[in-house]
Fold:
Amino acid sequence: MIWLITVASLLGFLVVNTLANHPLMTGYALTSYDAKIWQMLSVALLIALLINVGLYHGCNRKQLKRASPNPALAYRFALPLLSSFIFLLTLMLSASYGLYHYKLYQNALLPSALTVDAIVESHQISDTVTQSINLSHDIAMLGNGYIRQILQVKVDDDIEESPSTPQPPLTALISANIKDNPDWEATLSQLRPGMQLNVKLQLEPIAQPKPTSLPSNTKPLMLGFDEAQWLRQREVQAKGVIIGIEKTSLREFNPSHVKDRMVIAIEKLRWQLRQKILANLHRTLLKQSTSIVNAKNDIAQPVLKSSGETSSQSSGQSAIQAAIQSHAILLGLLTGDKSLMDSDVKNRYQVTGISHLLAISGPHVLMLAAIVSIFVVWLVKWLAPQLLVKLPSSLLVLWVSVVMAGFYALLVGFEIPAQRTFWMLLLLTLSKQLLVNFSAYRLLAWVALGMIWLEPTAVGQAGFWLSFVAVVLLLKFSETIGTVSAAEINNVSQLLAPTARSDVLSGFVKIISYQFKALLKLQIWLFVWMLPIVVWFFGKVSVIGILVNLLAVPFLGLVIVPLDMLAGVVSWLPVVGDWLSQIIWSMLTTLLNVFHLLLKQLIDTGVAKQSFFALSQTQLVLCLFIALLGLLKGLLPRMLMLPLAILLILLPLQQRSLSNNKPTLAVGDNPKLVISLLKKGDDSWLILSDNQVKAAQTDKPNFLKTKQASSNVSADKEISSLLNRDIYPLLANQQVHRLTGVISQTPSVRVNELVQQLATHVPVKAYWLAGYDVEHSRLDVTDKAVSASFRAITPRSCQTAQRWQQDGLEITAMSGWHLDLALTDEQKLATQTCYIHIRFKPPTSKPYDVLILAGNSDIPMQMTEKLCTVSAAHLLIQPYTLSIKPSWLALTKPSLLYVMTGAYKSQKLGEDSQLSLASWSVDKPADHPFEVLYADQVGAVMYALAPDDTD
Structure:
């Protein structure tokens, strides 16, 4: 019964979590919802459960015989019908309560943007770290120059209340630009939990999906990170930016609620541990910078001095970066704090298939609990053995483990795996204490049921599903594949009692082989059965992950985690605590540096690669049925797994046959770097447009932050973040494993570096790069301080009349000229920008035309009008940086205009463009109407390039 209720609750909350992404359905449901519904359903469910308990425990067969002439029939059908009724009631109740929970959150959101003077209170540590570190030769910036932290906002009482004024307390995700305001760093870095500060805030509401009707050939795409869902899971009601602070107003405050006091006390401990690790990092970087300075001084040859200094700086920067990444892992494993982890180290763990080890998992909690409990039992046996008469040592170990698991779970932010371990330990201990026999599966069901009802948004988190499914698989593995036969036990027992020295060595080798085989079986078992969940949430799989886990799991689980925890505990000791913790952390940093170097070699040599996949909802349901047939004996014949598996394989083949006939164009919603993916059958083209690129840049694009020599923020890491956030999810969604070609519409060094990194993981056949000088193999118009590298793939110049054609699909560069004229760098950049024309011409239908504009200058548009023949386009894609000209609209005659706008005011269309659209809507010819879509309103979309025969 408990599993029946748990499954029904999961389905109900999943329905609401899915509806949250559909504003039309959610809006209707919220307006027509009454909070009394879930209360009435809860009463009905309680009555049904009481009746069920009465049937099970209050009735016996003798009573059934007196009441019915056919007791077996009554007993056989009454309980299944009642169970089905309970299942439906639980499903409706969980969906109703989930909707009620979502309605409360929606009503608490900030309705509109405003600027206020407010008091911000820190109840938890910040999500990021930005700190200047004074080194021997320079000042290093730790972090990306921005601080992000969830704060409680209280508006000053003097402000006049309005409908948009937030009601205290307002939970907001606040960011501050330290890079442009370095004098804020000292104050904001001391805004630890339990402190408050007077600031001036620019608050803005959380962007919600808007009910926008899309054309018939267009559908939305859910790609990458869902910020709105993440903010809802953390109960954030608004976003804000600090535009001013009162430095002398930093002070402590006393929370009124006991719960807040407990939370702040725990967060203070986490903040102090972060500061201890940062102090150790500071000392490590100071030593490395000193060695760099000494190495520079040792270079005596004048001729070789420049190259020597360059080599020394490069190796020094690599050492500094390695130290930061190793300390980031130590901090994350100790407290669950991922503020130091950058996209580079996350990508390294993801590509090698061990990213799950970066999270606080159940084994981490159990390891600490086991160590402390054993130590406590030893103390009790030594100091007060009489206590073990009243409380057996087994129960003492369990209760100490519960206390330590609870404390550690709070210390790491009460993440889902830590929660699951704590609640399972607590229920297991209570069952042992009360002499109640509970199976592990039933305990797991109780824990899952409690967690989803306490936090309905947990069903949308990958960590919830990975954590609980992994436990179920481990339990099943221990019952089937993981069991050891009597012969193996006999062999091992003989090996443990050798009679000769040679037998000791052979016995040790055989025991290690047994352990290795068991670990390999477990890795294969987990990889196969958890593959659908990993593909559904992340869209990519590491092929070499099984083998890397064989090394990484024991290394991190048995070496790094225990010693890291020991260093954290030892650091609190007086006098010698800091010294001992420094020794341990320094040793662990060295080990992690070697481990990270090994991972880097696996990636650089191409051994570790990721494959991109996507599952439809139908395929996910099929995978669920196959898993149930494989794990649950006697439910249905296991032979049914074969036809289900065949159907699972045939579904993508059917989708592939459909895509062979009709091409699709998926367009992302990043207004600064427009990412489009054209796909037809096995051919896929990735089209990129850096619309912020400038000639001889001193002002870098915002999507790729400034690269500083003394900073751990580099262009490589920003590009890695862009790949993982936008491009890889798009490739996974469209099930693209190789690219026919990549087109960079603008002469951008950074886009070229992005393509070079992409080509190391995804095969790319052709590469068109705007502004590429074939004769000198260089890009010399943009960002002259940074040289372009073509290590993975050599480009061709993207210029006018360049063409690719296959099976009715044609891609043509309409602009892009290399002019031998006396032009400025800005003019050269504009003339080299490529407009891409896509035409799909089926054998029996009219062609479908798409025109993708790029850049931030109108020069290519003017030259294209004068020099090229521009045909009418069904779809016109244009960045917000370009002006919309009535003459261009009359020339292209689009049926649909898709404008790449952003969420900020600076990323909207200019006044001249808005005026052009307004005048066109009034004066447009009756035979040339068109629809306008804005990227910030509809998000990422996919267009089916299907001709309309009615035109």
